[in-house]
Specification:
Helix content: 40-55%
Strand order of the largest sheet: 3-2-1-4-5-6-9
Number of strands: 9
CATH topology: Rossmann fold
Number of domains: 1
Number of helices: 8
Length: 254
């Protein structure tokens, strides 16, 4: 697998799965555009780590819920491609940035509902639309979904439904972008110990034991498990894979 001289844009790459993906792609030889919403210092630290690996990286601010700013973000990406890499396009887009609102059905507010739709579906759709002119032919898009589109998890009705919409969108994008040789796939993580859901899995031993007990591989995931799958999917060996949902969950709830 080679990512040499490729450029990847990873949303929400200042922490968690996004950070691990950016670092793994850099280890594989790619340069990285890191996006962050509100934690600039974390994004700068990731840029520093990528530089230490001998690759080039830049951090750009992006709120994936704020579609009105996508035009100026695309312009910033175009400018940095020219100034840093003397390029007009980048190769890989990883739509990873997100948030979690976990509430029982009767407590979900319209505001909470809209925030999940805006970040995980509307944001993904319009970000792809705005960045498409900057994505290379023969490039790749990976959308990050969730194992909870397949199996039930309490208080995740809206989150999982919106992720399900992204999985359908992925198949449509794969069809529409196929003529340009652009592959579009979904990675669906299971339970991952990150800051997501307030770090619930990472810090709660009881939750950890439960997840391990219903997972054939006998443990929960860490961010690097998901990053490895994303980077493998972006490798040359998977050039003919498109429109697919690949679950990276250790086989949980099979």
């Amino acid at each position: 697998m080679t990512h040499s001289s490729r450029i990847a844009l990873v949303t929400g790459a200042n922490r968690g799965i996004g950070r691990a993906t950016a670092l793994q792609l850099a280890r594989d030889g790619a340069d990285i555009i890191v996006t962050y919403n509100s934690h600039r210092e974390e994004a700068d630290a990731v840029v520093g780590e990528i530089s230490a690996l001998g690759r080039s990286a830049v951090a750009l601010q992006l709120d994936v819920a704020k579609t009105s700013a996508f035009g100026s973000f695309a312009a910033a990406v175009h400018e940095v491609l020219r100034s840093r890499w003397n390029r007009e396009t980048f190769d890989f887009l990883v739509n990873n940035g997100g948030l979690q609102v976990a509430e029982p059905l009767e407590k979900v507010t319209e505001e909470g509902f809209d925030s999940l739709v805006n970040v995980h579906f509307k944001g993904v759709f319009f970000l792809v639309q705005k960045l498409l002119p900057l994505i290379s032919d023969q490039g790749s898009i990976v959308n990050v979904s969730s194992g909870t589109t397949r199996f039930y998890t309490p208080d995740r009705a809206i989150y999982s439904s919106v992720k399900g919409a992204v999985e359908v969108l992925t198949r449509y994008l794969a069809h529409e972008l196929g003529p340009r040789g652009i592959t579009v796939n979904v990675i669906a993580p299971g339970a991952v110990a990150t800051d997501f859901s307030g770090g619930l899995l990472r810090s709660n031993e009881q939750v950890q034991k439960h997840i391990a007990s219903v997972t054939p591989l006998g443990r929960f995931a860490v961010a690097e498990d998901i990053a490895g799958a994303i980077t493998a999917l972006l490798g040359d060996g998977n050039r003919f894979v498109t429109g697919q949902r690949i679950e990276v969950s250790g086989g949980i709830h099979l």
